[in-house]
Amino acid sequence: MNYRRLTEDEVLRLKSQSCLADDWGKVTVAEEFSTEFVHHTRFSGEVRLGVFHSEFMLPGGIRKHSGLRHVTLHNVTVGDNCCIENIQNYIANYEIGHDTFIENVDIILVDGVSKFGNGVEVSVLNETGGREVLINDKLSAHQA
Description:
The protein is mostly beta strands. The chain has one helix at residues 8-16; strands at residues 3-5, 20-21, 27-30, 38-44, 47-49, 55-57, 63-65, 67-78, 83-96, 101-109, 121-123, 132-134.
C-alpha cells in the first residue's frame, strides 16, 4: 500500500477532533484517507493509517463505523476499515490487519522479536505429556 503525509488541513482537522502527535510528520496515511472517523487519538513513533469506509454490524443490530476513537498508537500500522476504540493504555509495535475490530482493552503490545507462538510445543488435552503439538498460525483447536 502507498502512504502519503498528512496535509496541513488534515492535521488541523485531527487537532480539532482532540488528536495529538509527538511528530505529525511520522503519521502517514492511505491515499483515500479521511479524518472524519478519527477522534481522541494520540500518535507516537511511525504510524500508518488505512482508510475508514465501512461499518461493523454488532450483535443486537448496533452499527459502528470503522475508525479510531480514544486510542494511543505507537509504531503501529492500521489496515483499511478497522474499528479501534476505548483502549485504556495503548497499542504499540503492531501491524493490525484490514477489517479488524478492537474495543475496550487495556494494552496490546509487542516488545522485541516475536513469532506469536509459532513453533512452540504444547501439550493438548493430555495430562501426562508426551503428545506435544507444534503451534502454527493455521492450527485449529480441532486439528490439535
